[in-house]
# Entry
Amino acid sequence: KTSKSPKDEL
Amino acid sequence: MNIFRLAGDLTHLASVLVLLLKIHTIKSCAGISLKTQELYAIVFATRYLDLFTTYISLYNTLMKLIFLGSSFSIVWYIRKHKIVRRSYDKDQDTFRHYFIVLPCFVLALIIHEKFTVREVLWAFSLYLEAVAILPQLVLLQRTRNIDNLTGQYVFLLGAYRALYILNWIYRYFTEPHFVHWITWISGLVQTLLYADFFYYYFQSMKNNGKLQLPA
# Structure
């Protein structure tokens, strides 16, 4: 899995 | 998306629905802080600017539109609706916006991921969301006798925040380099603000009684 930013959250 | 995140979003959605239910069907906003609702409208307006620039998923876009639409319509109802606005506790809801908005904005100017308009506004929206519940908590404290729907509304909001923390713990262990201090600390502060409310909420459930905060 790649690291994501919490900007995919609401 | 993990189960905590989904449950958190759905709880958030449920809180908004409970509030709309109260306003739309009972035509009352008694016990609801307009100040908090206006702060949430600002939070969503500044955080969801990326609606126009970044596409994440249909789910993400739809939820953003729902939270934007519902927060602005709730503010409209309390300010403008000819019946609903009469039930607004204006004299009790005295928290001043700029006491909250200004420090959050200054903090966002100092602490952000990048010094760009979008990043500063994004950090601002996180800081503001963390404390936006304060006027509502103050109002609860003042009204003391809290009706069921208002109690459920605040409880669901708090539960949504708690689930988001579980979501970050999960992501931290499953996604490499998932370290986001701005989000985490403001989220933790936000959740801690509910601690007192939670305590009395569970007490009232245990005693099968009405939710009542101490003076």
Observations:
- Residues 3-206 of chain B form one domain.
